[in-house]
Predict the structure.
Amino acid sequence: MSMTEPSLGDWQPSELEENGRELLSRIREHQETIRDLPVTSRRSAADLQGLFAGPVPEQPTHFKELLDETFETVVPNLTQWHHPSFHAYFSNSSSGPAILAETLTAALNVNAMLWKTAPAAAAVEKTVLDWMAEMVGYPRDADGVLVNGASLATLYGLAAARDALTDLDVRERGLAGRDVPQLRLYTSDQTHSSVEKAAITLGIGTDNVVRLAADDEGRLPPEALALAIRRDLEHGRRPFAVVATVGTTSTGAIDPLPALSEICREHGIWLHVDAAYGGLWRLADAVRPYLGDLELADSLVINPHKVLFCPMEATALYCRRTGALPNAFRLVPEYLRVEPEDAAVDYMNYSLQLGRQFRALKIWWIIRSFGRQGLADRLGHAVELSQWLRDRAAAHPQWTVPADSVLPLVCLRFEPEEVPKHLCATERREWLDALNERICSAVGETGKAYLSHTVTAAGYVLRVSIGNIQTRREDVEGLWELLTATAAEAHHHMLSPTAC
Ligand SMILES: *Cc1c(COP(=O)(O)O)cnc(C)c1O
């Protein structure tokens, strides 16, 4: 009986190449026309779900058909994070070398859990970690690992801090059912939500995250920290970590690392620095002098996927207390045991993740393709554009800059003289809040740009983050025109007698 082999298996390599060329030409077209696309999509959630819902496809679909459908239904219904006028949250972009690196990563599909399972991937990971450490002024001999985001990196850093309390031996004995002191973690009220999430996960509890009121510039005041620690010690609590932020999410504020580090050192407390946003801006000459000494951090988080033209997901976690991360995460079952080898790093020992993508390749290609200087120039340009916008607002009689930052995160508020009569101070402020909220959504509705907002002491504030590799001077000039026109219109509308 003869058996004919059914046509199983993957695409032929030639087919992959042909389809790949087709995909690349679509990406090219997308990039060449991206300025004409609305930054945000306006389809309702239910409508969008309806576009994709359907039975499990039984039969194969030709790739070209799939590609057509993707560019008709998926791409236009996204928020275009890659758009040069995307300024919400944190503006970053992918870049050519990284887009191609993601393809090669998928083609090689190595699992970088152990040195032995992907030797050159681990070596490249070590290399880019060293390079980025140098870029942000952190010691090259620190432990480091690439993870998928700053939130998890902070969780891992704080786990290392908790497990460095050797007398408590939480790793072996756990936190429950025995007499352990209340572990206390200090940060400012501007800290990222990932800090509290880490406290939840680590059994610290949100009640033990001491969120100290930031000063007028959004920074954690050292005096308040010293006081809070002293008070906790008097009550028999156990201060174990401080989280400082370099580039707060709301306004781009930078905590005073030297003073905070001094206090930490005095009490033997771990200093974790969340420089997810701010850290890599150190590459820009205009920012470097203001960033503070990141070397003071026991553990440090920086986000290439937020600053370095690197696509999601890539975060670097560093820890200068060598051995502390493996002390928290190393657990080697028999089936993963390997002969120790000099200079080999088994990255599975530095976080919770076992199976790991070859994340380092895209960072390696970015740094090699642009060079440190090329990256510094591009980041410096974004800083200049943000300063240009800040200057326009500061010089304009109706606009204010409620929070200054050395980072390219611009906070703006429209405060026209003319408001409805008979408003008391509080009402006036609320009226201006509503006006600024209206401007923020009206800008988004034009589809030409996309901003987000924050609330500071001044009230509701527009947030413009600049950092896309394609953003040019004309784009930011266009944004300023759009902002002033939209503000005038919103103001007029809210003053009109029919406005509610
Ligand atoms: C963006 C950001 C985070 C979260 O980063 P992810 O990589 O999205 O988890 C944490 N902290 C700060 C200061 C950030 O700016």
